[in-house]
Amino acid sequence: MTTNIEPTDDTSSEPRRSLVPVESTLKNLLSREDTDKNVQITIDDHGPKVLSLGTEASHGQKHFDVRGTYMLSNLLQELTMIRHIDLLLWPRTSLPST
Hints:
It is a single chain. The protein is α+β, with helices and mostly antiparallel strands. The protein contains 2 helices and 4 strands, in the order E-E-H-E-E-H. The chain has one domain (2-89). Helices cover 34% and strands 18% of the residues. The strands form 2 sheets. It has a two-stranded antiparallel sheet with strand order 1-2. The longest helix is centred in the last third of the chain and has 21 residues, at 69-89.
């Protein structure tokens, strides 16, 4: 599953859009930033405090950085909510064996 992320661009009134693969971005974000492994990103974590996301307009060729504890924590929250909504709408069921 992928989702659009629209951070505000400080230099433009137009938001930058990014098409983000939810599961892999969530795993990457937690492995890099959640250094105390409590599934939260806080000032107590000692990760790099930056995550690059590819822009939708460039099909991922150009990147922008999500920086800082607050923004990364918000990104974690948004990705987690999207994953939960996806699981509610499309529960993973095993296919019948043939």
